[in-house]
Amino acid sequence: MDDELFANICEKVRCVLLSADMEKLNYVREMQARIQHQSLFENVLGSNKYVDEMDRNWLPRIKAYSSDKSISDGFAGSEMSEMEGLVEEGISARSESVESDEQGVDVWQGYFKGFQILSETQESAGGDGRKCIELRCGDCDQAIINYLRAGIRCFAIDLFCGTAIENQSLILRVRESELNISKEIGFPISSTIFAKLSPRLQYTGLIEPPDLVLDLNKGDELTLTSVREYSTHCTKTCVYVNAAFLFTDVNVFDYICIGPEIQVSVQKKDAHLRCIVEVGGKLSSRIPVLFPSRCTKFLVSMEELEDITFCKEVGINVIVSHIGGTEEYFQNLLNALKTLGCENMRVYARVVLNEIKGCDKWLDWMADSYDGFIIAFSPAERHPERDILHLCPAAESFIKRAYLLQKVIILEPALIAKKQLIVDPSYYHHIFLYPDKFILPCESSNSCFYFFFLHDSISEVLIEEALDKLPYCDRSLTGSDSLARSTVCASYQMKAPVIFVCSLTGRMAAKIAHFRPKAQIIFITRMKSAETFISLYHNIRFLYFNGKTDENYYCSLYKHFLFGLLYAESQHLIKHNDNVIFVYKENASTRLPDKYVSYKYHSRYFPQHLDKILFRKFPHGFLKNQPVHTFDARETKVVREQTEVDEKWEEDEDNI
């Protein structure tokens, strides 16, 4: 790509300012997570140095610890004031306080002690790990907070709509809401945000309201523009088209088709195209626009390049192409990513499943090449049974192959939820089992009760049938799929509400999610970048462990799981005598997690129980086997084992 072109793109999307804003916000998030981590462990374990230097008081504090003591008591006033100063300095956070019902009179006489009684607006968030919310530019601050409180950790934005400034503001509001919720609960909160790229083909922008239809008559004047400020404000006289590259090749008196009816002729050409309507018709949101055939020399549109650059600067690592296209289309997109220095981005594709035609496996290349898929449906207007969902064998083969390859599948259930499409029982696996998440628009996220009612009743039977099938063929080279499947089977047998996974890259958490456990998967890691993709998988919640790297692997693993248990307890995910499962690698020299253990959670003595169940080589607890050396008469320190966790090994999991 031309350096001048790249510079123009960066200038157009305000790369320097976007990067500075996000860097400032990420710094505040990192500082808050560090202070929370330090205060929590100082409260529980009695160390003021992230518990990396253990003294004689550490083990007694573990034995004396009781969960009846509030976790938030560990936050000193000076630390909280320091955090507030950082937030005020870093961002202009919205300071609207949310008054809970607990501040008023307790009309329930303490029956719901320890729980929050939700308001109607909070209840409409409907929360669990199955939903992914597509956010729109506008006043949605309170909605975002409600979604985060409800446990939703996956959001999407459509870069076709709105300007770079509006979309950046939307992302900042999500991160600021995470800061506010994190400050309330005392633990770091992170969600995954992915972006839908502008279509490579040309479409009109949005008319407000989106379902409005305008009539254009012959002789009306119409201006076509590529300025993104109009992408959400199209009118009868000015229409946005994502065709910045094509405008230069259009000549005066050329004809342009808009939708199936409208034809306009270009009368004047400047920064915009001034046109006259030659054939009238209906104008609506996002209808295709056809330019003259000579306007096709660019393989990747200007809008796509701007969107990719925007994602790079705001820290979005997952992008969604509007169509899957052909192999050449996919290679052109990869080349554009490489040119912009974004070759490590995860590339998903949007696929309209019931529009795929054919009886062979011609889409296998797409299932193999893309990292994930957004599955959409279109109304079957031409089919005699248009109210019933029909899939061709090629579509069935495609989505099944994507599931077996453990690719992320996100389904748009809007037509099914509105009962415009009825799912035939032969497609239950494709609709209710294979998808990881279900994407819903922000303004109507509480209108899918019918769909999730079907999903809950049908998916439970499908999952049990899938797990009962024997023998199981492990397609992994390391046996990790068998471990993940066994973990899920154990969680169903023991009715475990939570599975804790401790690893670096999150590959094992994704494998466990592939078998669709009912239990919440809490992935605990110190790799901050995992937040950019991990919550796209089924029922995974990311928990960032902001502690110093321990030389002692056993101590580090212990603190990871202790941190996870404290978080799960504070969020009421587990209660006394619940079974929980820990998945981890027993030895630092092992590349992948190779073990899972179950534990009957004790709300008072879980810190000392955890010490004894993790490692077979330490049946009485690894703390008692740590060599002790006295450096000072007043202080005793532990000499740690001289072993390191080779992080690169787990980073190579995908290659294995």
UniProtKB/TrEMBL annotation:
<dbReference type="GO" id="GO:0030955">
    <property type="term" value="F:potassium ion binding"/>
</dbReference>
<dbReference type="Pfam" id="PF00224">
    <property type="entry name" value="PK"/>
</dbReference>
<protein>
    <submittedName>
        <fullName>(Mediterranean fruit fly) hypothetical protein</fullName>
    </submittedName>
</protein>
<dbReference type="GO" id="GO:0004743">
    <property type="term" value="F:pyruvate kinase activity"/>
</dbReference>
<dbReference type="InterPro" id="IPR015793">
    <property type="entry name" value="Pyrv_Knase_brl"/>
</dbReference>
<feature type="domain" description="Pyruvate kinase C-terminal">
    <location>
        <begin position="481"/>
        <end position="584"/>
    </location>
</feature>
<dbReference type="InterPro" id="IPR001697">
    <property type="entry name" value="Pyr_Knase"/>
</dbReference>
<keyword id="KW-0479">Metal-binding</keyword>
<dbReference type="InterPro" id="IPR015806">
    <property type="entry name" value="Pyrv_Knase_insert_dom_sf"/>
</dbReference>
<keyword id="KW-0808">Transferase</keyword>
<feature type="domain" description="Pyruvate kinase barrel">
    <location>
        <begin position="143"/>
        <end position="351"/>
    </location>
</feature>
<dbReference type="InterPro" id="IPR015795">
    <property type="entry name" value="Pyrv_Knase_C"/>
</dbReference>
<dbReference type="Pfam" id="PF02887">
    <property type="entry name" value="PK_C"/>
</dbReference>
<dbReference type="InterPro" id="IPR011037">
    <property type="entry name" value="Pyrv_Knase-like_insert_dom_sf"/>
</dbReference>
<dbReference type="GO" id="GO:0000287">
    <property type="term" value="F:magnesium ion binding"/>
</dbReference>
<dbReference type="InterPro" id="IPR036918">
    <property type="entry name" value="Pyrv_Knase_C_sf"/>
</dbReference>
